[in-house]
# Entry
Amino acid sequence: MTDDTEKTKLQVSEETQAMLAKSKTSVDAPVKTEQATRDAKADAVITDKLANGGPEKTKDDTLVKKAPPPTTRKIPEPLEIERTARYGEAVLGERAKLLIMLRGLEVDPVEIEVEADFIIGRASQETNEMPDLDLIPYGALDKGVSRRHLVIMKREDTLHVMDLESTNGTYLNGVWMYPNQPRVLRDGDELMLGSLVLRIKFIWQDPPLD
# Structure
């Protein structure tokens, strides 16, 4: 009789514990679900505020910094690049004057004079950067031109061009240039910055010798 009583008590105890556990789970579940919903809504508000410029307060009253200025647009790598070997004159003379023609755009050529390092890129109001030649008027932002895209350097009577670790890279006559490695620039060369193509024409004070 005693054994039967003990078994009955044990069964009742186990059933009671199971009911209590089930009851606790059913009570906690809505609480956790409601908390998750509130967190999701708060995160959505924060994301929306950031998209509209911020800074705003988050759900825990901490400040969120404004989103950084847009970086250089990454453009798809061209499927086909025309690789053209060019053997134009490399010696320019004492005064390094160039005409830069923008292929595919109905604009006048740009005349520049390279006395030292000449930076080509696009101006940025966010960072107050201003290259020596700003390509913003020629669609530089949409075409993937970096703020400091490349530099033309005068070394005695010759010019060299070097990519400055630009986002979309630089191609010289259809050949990709390794960043920070100067290459000789010749009369008639083509430089592709992102998808913007520049044709280089030397201006000699005196005609080059044959």
